[in-house]
Every structure is written in structure tokens, then in C-alpha cells.
User: Fold CSC1/OSCA1-like 7TM region domain-containing protein from Aquilegia coerulea.
Amino acid sequence: MILSALLTSVGINLLLCILFFTLYSILRKQPSNIDVYAPRLVAEGKAHSSAFSLERLLPSPGWVRRAWQLSEDELLSAAGLDGVVFMRIFTFSLKIFSFMGLVGILILLPINYVGKQLNAFDISDLPNKSLDAFSISNLEDGSKRLWVHFVALYLATGVVCYFLYHEYRYISLKRLDLFYSSKPQPHQFTILVRSIPKSSEGTSSDSVESFFAEYYPSIYLSHTMVCRTSKLQGLITDAKKLYKKLTDLKSDAHAQHKSRRSGFLGLWGQKVTLVDHYGKKLEDLEENVRMEQSDVSLAREELPEAFVSFKTRYGASTALHIKQSDNPAEWVTEIAPEPSDVYWPFFYATFLPRWISKLIVIVATIILTLLFLIPVAFVQGLANASQLVKWLPFLKGILTIAFVSQVITGYLPSLILQWFLSIVPPIMKIFSSMQGYISNSEIEKSACTKVLWFTIWNVFFANVLTGSAFSTFQFFLDFKDIPQTLAIAVPGQASFYISYVVTSGWTSVSSELFRMSPLFWSTITSCARGSDNEVDVSSVPYTSVIPRILLFVLLGITYFFLAPLILPFVLAYFCLGYVVYRNQLINVYAPKYDTAGKFWPIVHNSTIFSLVLVQALAVGLFGLKQLPLASTLTFPLIVLTLLFNEYCRKRFLPIFQTYSAESLIKKDRKDSSDPAMTDFLDKLVTAYRDPALMPIHYSQNANDHNTPLLT
Amino acid sequence: MILSALLTSVGINLLLCILFFTLYSILRKQPSNIDVYAPRLVAEGKAHSSAFSLERLLPSPGWVRRAWQLSEDELLSAAGLDGVVFMRIFTFSLKIFSFMGLVGILILLPINYVGKQLNAFDISDLPNKSLDAFSISNLEDGSKRLWVHFVALYLATGVVCYFLYHEYRYISLKRLDLFYSSKPQPHQFTILVRSIPKSSEGTSSDSVESFFAEYYPSIYLSHTMVCRTSKLQGLITDAKKLYKKLTDLKSDAHAQHKSRRSGFLGLWGQKVTLVDHYGKKLEDLEENVRMEQSDVSLAREELPEAFVSFKTRYGASTALHIKQSDNPAEWVTEIAPEPSDVYWPFFYATFLPRWISKLIVIVATIILTLLFLIPVAFVQGLANASQLVKWLPFLKGILTIAFVSQVITGYLPSLILQWFLSIVPPIMKIFSSMQGYISNSEIEKSACTKVLWFTIWNVFFANVLTGSAFSTFQFFLDFKDIPQTLAIAVPGQASFYISYVVTSGWTSVSSELFRMSPLFWSTITSCARGSDNEVDVSSVPYTSVIPRILLFVLLGITYFFLAPLILPFVLAYFCLGYVVYRNQLINVYAPKYDTAGKFWPIVHNSTIFSLVLVQALAVGLFGLKQLPLASTLTFPLIVLTLLFNEYCRKRFLPIFQTYSAESLIKKDRKDSSDPAMTDFLDKLVTAYRDPALMPIHYSQNANDHNTPLLT
Assistant:
């Protein structure tokens, strides 16, 4: 790729971004779009539609200022610690890439450019220069200038590690602060006990009761058994749908008087109004639900798992950490998630199937990650013009037009790739939920890690290695050659990744802001059904967003050393992302649960991986460039980086796993004098009841439309 | 090697064994050797010298019967659970090798022998047959008879896993039984706290006191700071030596009247008797010790580490398992060893140097293991006749005699190898003690693992791979070829390992029984100084013994499949070992501390490794023999074996790490009604005092010779 082509691509994408931003500035002020651009404010009742004015039709940068001025405390109260941590990925990246950008553009880039390897030293014809002239490939073999790169690598590693340490420390302190200032929360007092042994007499519930009453008499509070409620959940979903239909009918004055026959398929029988018909059906369904609920409680479809609550946080923590039974496969304890965070369909009854399914999921994930591109390439191969004509002969006429054919053959494969890529995060989420995690946040975290490695493999390694002789297994098996293979392949892809940052990165941010598909659906549905009162506020889709951001961190760190020209574009990506996501966090997304920063270790590990990757690359590259001393001297850097990581693991990671005795006891003592604790403990007893077992009152609500729902 | 050569070697070694056993039967009955063959009985005062009779000069098998009849309970009380576990390695091996021996000799061996690959089907000339005729190499490529081996492999894996499960289960139950029936022991109530933060005012001791009194007011009992006492220990050792000299002098009526001058080097000054002289010196030394002791206590050479004792076992376990401080690098808790098991010179003050030294040790161990043979081969190369003559010209005359030269060149290199090998366990022990373990048993366990991998690498892999093109790193780096490389190399070494089992294995057992070097030293010293009352009873040197036994398990399992002819010899080894070590456990060794079976997981892991090794070999071998289906079908066996191992890790390993809440609370409740507990808790307060800080009274004892030592 030559410089002018890059500039054209940048120009086009810049214009697109400006267009999106401008459109957003206007559209967000239209009352009809408020569900799309500020669903959170609507749900919180803070949205106010202003009267029509000319200002509404002009783009204004007010939202940028608001997003910018947001303080961290405001962010914390709005988006939880997870939101704060999420935004700190951006500030962290901005910090490291500012340093790298300065070093890269002011020092490394000129040095690369005056190299003679590619015979490019001719300043007159700059626009037609290949981008490779700005990369390290342009330096001749054995050049002493490579030592500048060597020093820059050491410096950059130092700076990144400093900021990593600083962030880890800051976030872990934040996490502790949050804990110290938190109100009593059910999950602090509760643990999940799994693999409860069956006692010969009595139910599992009895054996939980007797076990904890026996061994923890002074601190044991209560327990809630986990039941198998999949059937019940199906019924409740049906009831919900019916209730919605009914309220829609009632709000529509015209439809209220429609009628149908009560017999089979509405073909014969007595005529009844639709409202009565659905009302009757809803009542029947509710009766079913209630019967099933009492069935579940009576017939005891209990699983050998229970949430056990204690009177103190320290008590819960004690029971969590000590092996309960002489048989380590029984009475297995786990941290309980927040009640709203529990993933209810977890049902792996015993120890053995649980970890077998875990192993299967791990294998499936590895296979999906490594072999993903093979079926995709196959499908893409099928999606060319001649194949299409074979399948859908009626397209023949259109496809003979050269332009259409070009667009289809050029665009269809990439569309297919995009579609395949977009289904990966949901698939990984399904995998993670099969792994036996008990909370949505754990599933999300695990899926996030999976998607991260998937992305790094498929967007980085598979892409880079296709150029050189690429065979997945061969690459792994000859692992002594990895640095060299990478050193040959990676610099060649620099121009591809620069345009990748511009096209994929910038576009993803602006489309996040513009919310194309919600806007589309909202327009369609509002045309079809009129306005709908219920607004669905989702939480930030960390599973898909964080891996994408971390990919750009990886690209930035890797190409800082190889082709520093990428850095301004990466910096621009993070600047855009910083503003856009702050805006989205306060307007669009609302957290459903808070992991209190548990995503940070993923970010930390991924950054360390990027560092080690660039160091391994440097080892290979210095070797290729016939500077074996530099190659050897880079080894200690890898060791130091790994030691630093190990230190951070020991020093900070435990803080993200459990709280310390010190903090738990302090909190307990503070609470012991609080009269509100009695109330809290009373509520704690029922906090972990399966929502499917809650009484439902839809038909009552349907009759009395104004009362709020009780779910 | 041909069959007759093997039989000769077996014959010679058998005769040697019989000779050793016979000599032992006679020598053990001589009163002068009682210190050598029953030091434990002497120390316990159970040894009784019988009057002289003719019987004393005849070999008798009575000791074999006694060793054989010993019940497990007797063994438990005599040698602790460690002794029982140690003997169960033998019974376990006997069980699996009996099965393998039956299958191997009755089924596999004939099948191998009728193979035609090596053109060996000629029963007439049996004695001159190469041993390879009995190995799997003799089967022709693609032979259907290999399926018998395939089935045998599956069967053997099943049987080994069954017994492994059974043993793990049995030993973990024994461990729990032992705990339930144990008297209160200090280490059950105590934890070690490391990385105690320095408080601004006061000492570390104060901050321990205030921390635990604050957070564990109801269960905290006391604490003992760990001090730096290396100087003190040196002084005490000197005092001990001096005291021994003095008592020797006093018991020797003649020497008591010797005298020397009191001045410099005894050259001038007043004449004093030697007894007075040493007595004075001892008193001075003791004064020094006392001053140093009070120095240590006053000047507070405290380390930031302390043993903290609690009033209940459950309390100690709670404090052990929960992270104490918000900073995970402070107040790090560990299981406390038995007081007699504490390794006092542990001194790594802080968190960071501790794990850096750990990393260094790991690297050093790997280097020592992988590169051990290179310097050894170099030294062996130097130790040939011509080199010796060059260094020590006076040997020239002797070395020209052909026989002497042959013996030296033939024997010296192997002597050097033996000597190098014998210093490995002590080196590994030093490594392990540098790793920051706090107890002798942990050091021993860790050293045992290190020696095990060292042995397996250097005796098995390095030996096997020297035959084929051997390069350590290449072997590891091309790990997809490992099965094939092994499949080519390992069967070729069958005859070497058969004779290795006979020479090294049988000899090691009989020399263990005969105790050559203690016998030698005892004879020398008793000639020189007359009898010595102090008997040094050592504990079983698990570090060097267990790896050797496990090597034979590895050889047996591996060659069961390849060359079943090895099995009778392995079985003979374990039979001998069974009798000999039972005898040694009751007569020679006395346990100094009991890890309660913590060595078993090492045995388990090593056996699983052997299984996976033979399975990988089978994969390679079936491939070589052009039976790809069998090769593929062996893969599931590897997976199943690893899953089985994983299951055992989850199911049994936690039992070997900590006790459960259930068992701790039960024990605590049982004790709470015991009036002896008050006494015990009083003693507990001082149980973990550094022995170097105990008051010493040697000079007093020296004056009053009959009182026992107070150390």
C-alpha cells in the first residue's frame, strides 16, 4: 500500500465518522429517537422532550462536553466500578500510546525512513512511497540504528509496566474503597454450596440445615435450595407474552371490540371478545404456573445445591474458604453472586459431569478458535457470482451487469465474514454458560476471555501467518521458530493493520455512537405499532467490546516497534472511544450487576501478552537483521516482563478474588451497631429465591392496568 | 545381549545377594554390630545382647519372619504413617507387577518369541538367543498379534488405575483416621505468618499481638517470633563438641591426668589438667551463648515472621485459609509444621526475594537435571589410564600391568558416575531448602520430587536417547515426534535395563540391608576409640530411596509392554525390598517427624507419568509397526488416564493438604471437655521456641555426668 492510498482511506473514513457524529448530534435531539439514544434516561424517568425549535435540527457538540466533563465519581455511581474500569482501559491506552506515539513518530519513524534496505531514500516522491519505507524493514541488515529500536523497546516496556502497575493498584484500591463504603449486600453474606450429599433420611434441604446448624451454630442464618425450574420458566415466559398482548389490546380502543369464537382454532363455538378470550387464557396459564410452582416446592425438584446465608460476612467467608467435608467432592463451596446476577439454569448436578462438561467446552473453544477460518473461507468461496447463478438462476440477469457482479463478489465474502464474526461472542457465551458458571457476570467474563483469544488468533495470527506458509499446527509445533516466523510475517502486514485500525476501529466507534440497528428497528416498530412504553435498557456488552479494544492495544504495542506510523491512528481510535463510550455509559447502558472491576485482570494479562509478543518479535527481527547481540539482550526483557506479571498476580490478583479477614471483620463490626441490620437479615432469608418461584399476578394486573408489575 | 549372558549376570548377582543376606544374618547377631544393625532398638533401650552361643555364628532367617509378620498397625506405631505409605509402595508395586507378570510372561512373551522380524524362530539354540527375540521388536510389521499387546495395554492401564485409586483412597482414609485418633498436637493449633508489616511504633511482635488480638480476640492464644539465630547456632554447636570432648576425657581415667599449659597454644603459662582446661573453656563458651541469647531476645533480631497459636484447631484453620490483609503480600499465612520439623534457618524476609530465589532454584534444578551428564562424561573421559599417568607419574609402573589398567579404566568411570549420582540428593536438598520451605519434611518432599525427575531423565531418557541421535533440546522442541523417537529408541535398550534391575536394583536392596558404610565406620571407630555410647538414629532417607523405587516402577510399566522378560526381575526386586525395608523400619530408622502420608501423591503422579509414557510409546510403536488403527485407538487411553488423574487430584489431593471444617470442629468439641487441654495450651505457648534460644547447661552436666542432657 502506498502513502497516498492510505491517506485516501483515512480521508473517506474520517468523513464517514464526521457524518455519523453530525447525524448523531441531530438525531439524538429528536423526541422519537429518545428510546434509541437515551434508553437509560427514559427508563430512569430523567428524559424530557423539549419543545420544537430550530436548534433541534442543528448539530451541536454539547453531548461531547458533557461526556468529557463527567467526573469519575459520577461515572462510578452511574455505571458501577465496571464502568469506571472500562473507561480506564481507554485512559490507560491513551497514556501508553501517547508516549509510544512521541517516541515512534519523532524518533523511530525518521530512522526507519532514512534506511536503505528498500532503496526508498528519495524524499521527493513521498505520496507514492510504499508504507514499508516507514517500517523497520527499511533498515539495512546489521545497521547500528537498530539499537535505537532496542532502547525504545526497553523504554516502552518500562512505561507500559509502570502504568499497568499503577492501574492495577488504583483499581484494587477502588475496589476496596467500594467494599468499605458499601451497604450490606446479600452476596456478601452468602455462599453457594454444591454437591450436597444425599442423606438416607430426609431431603437435601434437611441435610444442609443439619450440617450448618451443627458446625456453624452461631453464624448460620438460612439456606435456599436450588430447584430445577426450566419448565416453569417456559410457562412464565408464555404468560408474560400473553400479558403483553392483552395490554396492547386494551390500550387499542378499536381492537377491544374484536371478537373470535371460543372453539378450536377460533372456528366455531361461542363468540367472545378478544380481550375476554386472552384474559381467560392468561388466567388458565397462571393457574398452571401456580400448580407447577407448588409442584416444584412440594415434589422437591431440588438440586443438591443451595445458597447458604450467614449472619456475618466473615462467617460466610470462613465457610467459603475451609474445605467443609472429609470428602473434597462433597459440600463444595463457591462465592455467591449478587441475586440479580445468578444464572438460574445452572444444573450440573454432580462433581464429575461438571468438570467433564468443562473440559468439553475448553476443547470446543480451542477447536472453534483454531479452525474458525476454514469453514468461513469455504462459505466465502461458494459466495461468488457463478455459484450464486447456479443456486439462484433467476439472478443471472442481474449478475451479468458488471457493476452488480463486482459489488456482490467484492462485498459478499466480507459480509459473510462479518456475520460469522458477529455470532462468535454469543457462541462463546453459550459455551461459557455450559461450563457451569453460576453467575451472568462470570459467564460474561469467561466469554470475554474466550472472545479475546479468538480475536487475537483469527485477526492477528491467522492473518499474519497466511502470508507466510501458514499451518496452524505447524506453527505451534515448531515453537522454537515462532519468533523468526513472526519476524518475517508481521512487518509485512503493517499497512493492512493501519487501514484495519482506520476502517474497523473508527467505524466500530462511530457506529456504536450512532446505534444503527436499534435506530433501524425502532423506526420500523414505531411505524408499525405506534410507540411502545417498555424500554429495554441493556448493560454494556463487555463480551464483544473489551476484546475489540484489547486487539487495538495489541496492534498498537506490536506495530509501535515495527511500523510506528500506526500510532496516530490508534491514538485517534482511543480518543474517539473515550468520548463515545463515556456518553453511552450515561445515556444508553445501565449496569445490571457489578463485578467490582473483575474485568481488569483480563486487560492486564492481555497487555502483558502483547508486550511479550512484541519482545519475541524483536528477538526474531534482530536475529534476521544480523544483530545477534541485540537479539540476545532482548531475552532478559521477556523474563523481566514475565516476572513483573507474576509479581502483579501475587500482589493484586487476590484482591479481585476475595476480601480479607481484616476488611470483613471491620465491616461486620460497623454493622453490628446498625439497627437496620435486623431488617436486612430478614430480607436476606428470601434474597436467593428463584424468580420463577415468585408468585405472579399478571391477570390481576391486566384487569387493573395501572398497578405496576410485581416481577 | 544374549540370554546366556543375562543368566550369568543374574547368577552372579543372585549369589552376591545370598552372600549379603547370609552375612547379615550372622553379623546382626554380634553384639559389636548392634549399633549398626539395630541403632533404633539401642536408642529405645530395647536391644539386649545375648550370651555367646554357637547359634550366633550360624545364619538364621528369623529376622525375615519377624519382618514378614509385622502387622500394619505395628508398622504405623513404629514408623508413622510415612512408613506405612512407604511400604505400600512395595505392596502396590507387587500387586500391579504380579498381574503384569502373568500377562507378560504367559501371553506376550510367547507371542513376541514366535515373531519373525528378527528371524529368531529357532527354539533349539535358546541360550544364544538375543534378548530382542523376547521383545515386541521381534513381531513383524502389521502383524495381527500386535492387537494382543493393544488389549494387554488397555487391561494393564485399567488394573494400575484401579489399584492407584484404591491406594489413594486407602491412604487418605488412614490419614483421616490418624487425625481423628491423634492427641492434640502443637502444629494443629498453629499457623506460620510471614511478611508481617513493620508498624511505625513498636516491634513486629507488637503488631502481631495487636493484629490477632484485634481480629481474633476469642481464639487467639499466643505467638512466637522467628529470630535470626545462625551465629547462636554456631556457638551452640561448638559447645556441644566441647562437651563431648570433655565427657570423653572424663570417662578415660588415663587422660584425666594429662595436663597442658594455660597460655597461648598451650606453650607456656600455668600447668592445668586437661579436664579443667576444657571445663573452663566450656563455661566461657556457655557464657557467650547466654549473652548472645539475651542479645537476640533484646536487640530483637526478629524476622517479620511468627508462629501464631490459637485456642482451637478450627480457629487456626480459619486464620490459615482467609486472606488476612487487604494487601495480599502482607500477613501471608502458611501451615505450621510440627515443632521438631521446623527448618530454623529459613530467613527470606520479604515476599519478593522469596519467590525470586524460588525461581532461581527451579532454573538451577532444570539445568542440573538436563546437563548433569555433560560434565560427568567429561570427567569420566579424563579418568583413563593415560590421563592418570600424566597426572600421577608414579602410577606408571602399576598401570602397565594389563589387569590393573583394565580394572581402573573399566571401573573408575562408573565409580565416578556413582559418586556424582550419590551427591545429587544432597544437592537437591540444598536447592529445596533455598526455595524457602519452612519444614524439613517439605524440603524432603520437594527434594524427592526433584531427584525423581532427575533420575527419570538421566537414567531413562538420556540413556535411551543416546542410542538414537540425542540432543536434549531437540527432543523437547520436536515434541510431535516424541512418541516415534521413543518407540525407536526404547525397545533397543531392553537388555540394558534388565541387567540394570538385576545389578543396580538387587544390589541396592542388599546393600541397604548390609549397611556397608555404617558397618565400615563403626568397625574403624570402635577400633580407634572404644565403644561410643551415643547412637545416631537417622530417619528413612526418603529423598534418595523413593525416587529409586519409582524408577523401577517406571521401568516395569514401560517394559511390560515392550519386553516382558524384565518383569520377573522387577518382581524379585520388590519382594526383596518389601522384606528388607520392613526390617529396616523397625530396627534401623526412627521417624523424626511424620508428614502423615504426604509422599503418596508423588508416587501417584509418577505412576501416572509411567502409564502415559508407555501409552505414548505404544502410539509410536503401533505406528512404526504399520498398525495405524491401533495407534489411533491408543489415544483415548491417554486421555482417559489423564482424566483419571485429574479426578484423583480433585477427589483425594485436598485431603493431603488440609483437614476439613467437619473434622476440625469434631476434634475441637471432643477436646473441649478434656481437662488435659489447659495443660496442653500452656505448653503450646512455648512449643515453637527456637531450640537455639533454649537455656543450655553443658558445664553443669559435665560436672554432674549422670544427669541427662537438656537439649
